[in-house]
Amino acid sequence: MSRILIIGAGGVGAVVTKNIAKYNNIFSNIMIASRSIAKCNAISNSIKNLYKDIKIEAAQVNADNTSELIELFRRFCPNLVINAALPYQDLAIMDACIACKVDYIDTANYEPKDEAKFEYKWQWDYKDKFESAGLTAILGCGFDPGVTNVFTAYASKHHFDKIYYLDIVDCNAGNHGKTFATNFNSEINIREITNKGKYWENGNWITTKPFEIHKILNYPNIGKKESYIINHEELESLVKHFPTLKRARFWMTFEQDYITHLRIIKNIGMSRIDPVLYNGIEIIPIQFLKAILPDPSQLGENYSGEISIGCRIRGLNKEGKEQTYYIYSNCKHQDAYKKMGVQAISYSTGIPASVVSILLTKNIWRKSGVFNVEEFDPDPFMKELPKHGLTWNELFNIDIEV
Ligand code: NDP
Fold this sequence. Notes:
By secondary structure, this protein is α/β, with parallel strands linked by helices. The protein has two domains: 2-139, Rossmann fold, CATH 3.40.50.720; 147-342 and 381-396, Dihydrodipicolinate Reductase, domain 2, CATH 3.30.360. It contains 14 helices and 18 strands. The chain has helices at residues 11-20, 37-48, 66-76, 90-100, 121-124, 127-132, 147-158, 186-193, 234-241, 256-267, 285-292, 333-340, 344-361, 378-384, and strands spanning 2-7, 27-34, 55-60, 80-83, 103-106, 136-139, 160-175, 197-201, 204-208, 214-219, 223-229, 247-253, 276-278, 281-283, 304-317, 322-332, 369-372, 393-396. The strands form three sheets. Strands 7, 8, 9, 10, 11, 12, 15, 16 and 18 form a nine-stranded mixed β-sheet that branches. The structure holds NADPH dihydro-nicotinamide-adenine-dinucleotide phosphate. NADPH dihydro-nicotinamide-adenine-dinucleotide phosphate is lined by residues 8-13, 34-36, 39, 61-64, 84-87, 89, 107-108, 142-146, 184-185, 188, 296-297, 345-346, 349.
């Protein structure tokens, strides 16, 4: 029986905790720890009476501080830690995991607070430390990154001899009724999408202006949506692990009104990440903006519509013939709200992270070192995912539009 520590009590942390709590045959103790204890208590109190055979507790921690984390780990003695807080905390938590001999999972790769830049290098550099400690770290275990990486590995294992073209397509056709809100942590989200676009082609990274390349794509059960190339972290690991890729891109849908808001936020300096003096104190504009925007974990109640995320792939099939392939998953915001009290983005991120926790704890996905999810056998994950509420579909030899 395993003890699991979930760090971060936002939308994603809530889903991971609520899903893990159902598995008292695998986990004996759950701790949810975050900066604000009130949020941890709210999550733990909402499920304590439902799952009496598993001990659920809450704690306060500043996950930027490795010594504080080590103290908490020594007190709770987890076997596995999930970082469902922010990418800024990845390295501090990995350091504490090494110090206390604990396995590690996260949903977003490290980025420094003072530079809007993400890449895997910082975490891949921990490979030797995890390997020699006999520990497992699995990076990017949400939906994208996460399920999209597993979808690519599954396509490669079962349907392709060579994958040449990969287009990850992410559509949110939902309406939460707010003028402007982000679907996950707004600071991280706005840093990500106001940056330059980037994709892989013929061995090089090509950068574009923000929202420069776009086209209308058709999404299952949704229809046509304007989709934009943005830089997304899984491209970096996928081109490394699938070297036959000639091109890899990531498309996300945005409404025109959303882009106008983002442009204004950027133009007036509200997305700045450097300190600004205000009434004698230093504030960081994007952090102030986050404080006044709607909380993504609270958007679920009035959210209608659905999301559709998948991989469109072109290459040679196992017989060496040209093949197109589309694997995707749709999730309705209201279904996520009924099941877990959150919107579909938090749900579709937290569920895969809890599935990876189960596979790691059962030693089905275990090896020593630091890995991305596509480095494991995709089959157990693909089998498990629908049991937790996220179904997937495949289409062959259709017009994939990209
Ligand atoms: P939220 O902002 O809702 O939640 C983040 C939580 O982390 C909050 O409880 C916050 O505390 C806590 N936190 C922040 N800083 C610290 C700290 N220093 N110490 C302890 N706790 C801290 O974010 P989401 O739940 O929407 O997203 C969580 C993560 O999931 C993010 O890293 C995001 O990038 C990632 N993500 C990944 C996706 C994927 O598909 N792979 C998709 C969507 C999100 P407080 O409440 O006090 O601010």
